[in-house]
Amino acid sequence: MSMTETELPQEPPRGHVRVVYLGPVAPHWDLQSDFGDRAMVEGFRDRMQARLQLVPPHDPQFRRNRERVIRDAERENLLLDWDLGVPES
Question: Judging by DSSP bridges, how do beta strands 78-83 and 15-21 pair with one another?
């Protein structure tokens, strides 16, 4: 009997990052990390900033770019949290 992808044990996360909204004045975003390889986290930070730097959470572009950041974190096997300064609905 062969194992399917959904049955394979998942690797532990390679790091943890938190994307924090700083407010209405750019730069809007900061990235905090609790653990993980510094070079990997910095590479993720650069890509996150490229997607979100000038996009506040109320901008229509934010939803699309947030999804790209989420997919990037999944590819890197990072735990990802968001702090938008308000409770999420």
Answer: parallel
Cβ of 70: how many Cβ atoms within 10 Å?
13
Question: What would the pLDDT profile of 58-67 be if each residue is shown by its tens digit?
Answer: 999 999 999 9
Q: Work out whether the CA dihedral 63, 66, 71, 74 comes out positive or negative.
A: negative
Residue 41: how many other CB atoms lie within 10 Å: 21
Kindly report the pTM of this predicted structure.
0.81
* N residues, the chain: 89
How far separated are the first and last CA of the chain, in Å rounded?
43
CA distance 51 to 35: 22
Which of 28, 55, 32 has the alpha carbon at shortest distance from 42?
32
